[in-house]
Specification:
- This protein is an alpha/beta fold.
- It folds into two domains: 144 residues, Rossmann fold (3-Layer(aba) Sandwich); 83 residues.
- It is built from eleven helices and eight strands.
- Helix 10 links the parallel strand 6 and strand 7.
- Helix 4 packs across helix 5 and helix 6 packs parallel to helix 11.
- The protein is elongated, with a radius of gyration of 19 Å.
C-alpha cells in the first residue's frame, strides 16, 4: 500500500557524507604525523580503532555526544593520541582540519534530487528527519538546497530530541497530517531510523547503498530493503501511482 508521506534521513541516505571520510583522514594524518613524530598509517589506524570503540554502542553515546559531534571527534582523536603516547594538545587542530577537509567532499547522491522531484510531483508529503548538531545540519540543508523539497524538517539539535525517539517521528507525522500507517521512513541506520520509525508504526525502509550489511543480530529488521533510491521510486511511482487522498496540511 502506497503511503501518503515519506520521511528521509539525510546523512548517507540523501547526502553522501561517507565518501570522503577515509581520504580525508589519510590526508590529515599525513599532514600532522611529522609534527607528532609519528607514522601516518599508525596514526590513522589508532583513530579508526578509537572511533569504532567509541560509537559502537549508539544508545550509550547519543545523549552526551550526538549533538556535539565536533567535541566527540576531538575526544576520539585525544584517545587515539594518548594510546599512541603522542601529544594530545594537537587533537583540536587535527580534528578541525579533518572536518573542513571532509566537509568539502560531501555530495548529494546522484539519485537524491531526482527522487525528491518525482515524489514531490507525485503529490507525496515529504519530511527530512536528521540527527546531529543544529548548525552542522542546517549548513548541509542550506548548502545542498534541500529545504524547498520538504513539508517538515526535524533536526535533532533544533527540535531537542533525535531518532530513535518516538517524539521525533510523532512530530513529523503531525506536521504532515499523516497517520503512522500511511507513512514510510527511509534511512541507513537500523537502530535510529528503522527502529525509531517502527516504534510508532511507520513503515521502515532501510537503504544500504551497497556499503552496509545487516549482520546476524540487527538492531531492527526493516519492512523493506533498497540499495538505492531508484528502487524506492520504482516501488512507489513505477506507474506514477499517486498516494491515497487524505486531509491536506494546513
Amino acid at each position: 500500500m502506497n503511503p501518503r508521506a515519506i520521511f528521509f534521513d539525510m546523512d548517507d541516505t540523501l547526502l553522501n557524507t561517507s565518501r570522503g571520510v577515509e581520504e580525508s583522514w589519510q590526508l590529515v594524518c599525513g599532514e600532522f604525523a611529522p609534527r607528532l613524530s609519528a607514522d601516518p598509517l599508525a596514526l590513522r589506524e589508532a583513530i579508526k580503532k578509537q572511533a569504532s570503540d567509541f560509537w559502537k554502542n549508539e544508545a550509550a553515546v547519543e545523549m552526551q555526544w550526538r549533538t556535539r559531534l565536533h567535541d566527540a571527534r576531538r575526544h576520539v582523536v585525544e584517545l587515539a593520541l594518548a594510546a599512541e603516547g603522542l601529544d594530545i594538545a594537537i587533537a583540536e587542530a587535527l580534528s578541525m582540519r579533518y572536518w573542513h577537509e571532509n566537509r568539502g567532499r560531501m555530495r548529494l547522491f546522484d539519485d537524491a534530487i531526482t527522487t525528491l522531484d518525482a515524489l514531490r510531483s507525485g503529490g507525496y508529503r515529504l519530511g527530512l528527519i536528521t540527527n546531529g548538531p543544529a548548525e552542522m545540519q542546517l549548513d548541509k540543508v542550506a548548502r545542498f538546497e534541500l529545504g524547498s523539497y520538504f513539508d517538515v524538517i526535524v533536526i535533532e539539535g533544533v527540535f531537542g530530541k533525535g531518532k530513535p525517539s518516538p517524539e521525533v517521528f510523532a512530530h513529523a507525522l503531525a506536521s504532515t497530517f499523516t497517520d503512522p500507517a500511511d507513512a514510510w521512513h527511509v534511512g541507513d541506520n537500523l537502530y535510529a531510523d528503522i527502529g525509531g520509525a517502527q516504534s510508532v508504526g511507520i513503515h521502515g525502509v532501510w537503504i544500504h547503498r551497497e556499503r552496509l550489511e545487516m549482520g546476524d543480530t540487527p538492531a531492527a529488521v526493516p519492512d523493506r530493503v533498497v540499495a538505492h533510491l531508484d528502487e524506492l521510486l520504482a516501488a512507489l511511482t513505477g506507474d506514477l501511482v499517486r498516494p491515497r487522498p487524505g486531509p491536506a496540511p494546513g
